[in-house]
Amino acid sequence: MTDRPLTMLYVTAESLAEGAAAHVHVTEIQSGLIRRGWQTQLLAPTYDHQETRPGVFRRLSAIAAVNWRAWRQLGKVDAIYCRSNPLLFPIAWLARRRGIAVVHECNGPYADISIAHPNTRAFFRLFVAMQRWQYRQADAVVSVTANLKHWLEGERGRADVALISNAANTQMFTPETPPERITQNMFVVFFGALAVWHGARMMMDAIEHPEWPENVDLLIIGAGADSPVIEDAAARNSRIRYIGRQPYKRVPGLIVSALAGLVPIVDVSGRASTGLAPLKLFETLAAGLPVIVTDYPTQAEFVRDNNCGIVVPPDDAAALARAVAGLARDPAAARAMGKRGLDAVALAHSWDHRAGEVDILLRALVARKG
User: Fold this and answer.
1) Residue 221's CB: how many other CB atoms inside 10 A?
2) Which of 5, 211, 288, 328 has the lowest CB atom count within 10 Å?
């Protein structure tokens, strides 16, 4: 090893829209590594601002450009950190040939490919083979949940997958954030992408259920495939406050005065079986709020272990309504749950903590490569 700063390429095939989970994860880890002395270069697909939904060929060409730009930098870096994607196969193969340390961070099973991109199902087996090769040939693989770690070790063929979960920016999400009230009523909040697995229909059924308290609104922040479900329900029910996607820096102020945060993820194609550790879980708790989560591995275990919220059965709108009603009847108990969650996140679940774990992993790999 030399005394020069270590260098790394951070490579992703996803475009990084501000506030999206991928954007938060990548920028927080990169910032933490820079604070620890790394020189990093982020390579991600870029599109013109008019391309809100770029076509498949535009996306493929942008990912090809990422691989090309990464190849041109191979002689200048000590490590490559990939946010797993089958289409990063070229740079993973080239880096291995050059003897450069390669790490793949996995955020979900293979099913995520066809869920996120249904028009790629004809190529599903090919994509699985490309990604499996990357997992098996990588110097290290990182998982965000314990169940996903176990699955990856089966795919990799050895028990050496690192567990480095999601986290929260504890400087940004904090109980001391000045509140910005959308409603003067008591309210619970959901924020994030309205993907098909984030429980939009469950929330809409819950707020219409007789056990949902009349004095509690539901604030929804975000946009996505299920936005029309929310819009239609909000037009019928004045307790639903839907404000769409908001700047990420505005979110803490919008949620901090809530009664609780909702994380009602539903299972789609079995993806929940590998565990769930969504950013909104940690960000909600970092703001001092309790959470109501569906009973899936990791998120349910975290809530139970820290007694920082309520776990409800999947797809059970009545149970979600009863959980909201229970917290509304006892705000002091809700605040106590939120305080326990805040303490747990502050102890070991900040993004700076996660960046430190990645730093240790990368330095060990680079040292081993010599």
Assistant:
1) 22
2) 5
- Identify the burial level of 209 via C-beta atoms within 10 angstroms of its C-beta, where 0-12 means exposed, 13-18 middle and 19 or more buried: middle
pTM for the whole structure: 0.93
For residues 92 and 67, is the Cβ–Cβ distance under 8 A?
no
Q: Classify each residue of 42-56 as buried b or exposed e, where b means 16 or more C-beta atoms within 10 Å of its C-beta.
A: ebbbeeeeeeeebee
| Beta pairing class for 309-312 and 240-242 | unpaired
273-282 burial, b at 16+ Cβ within 10 Å, e below that, comes to ebbbbbbbbb
**Coil, helix or strand for 29?**
helix
Q: What is the pLDDT of residue 130?
A: 96
Query: What is the residue-averaged pLDDT of the chain?
Result: 94
Q: How far apart are the first and last CA of the chain?
A: 7
* CATH architecture of the domain with range 7-167+350-369: 3-Layer(aba) Sandwich (3.40)
pLDDT at 121: 81
Burial of 67 (0-12, 13-18, 19+ CB in 10 A): buried
Q: Mind listing the pLDDT tens digit for each residue in 36-58?
A: 999 999 999 988 655 556 788 88
How many Cα atoms occupy the beta-carbon half-sphere of 45 within 13 Å? 23
Write down the domain spans for the chain.
Answer: 7-167+350-369, 186-348
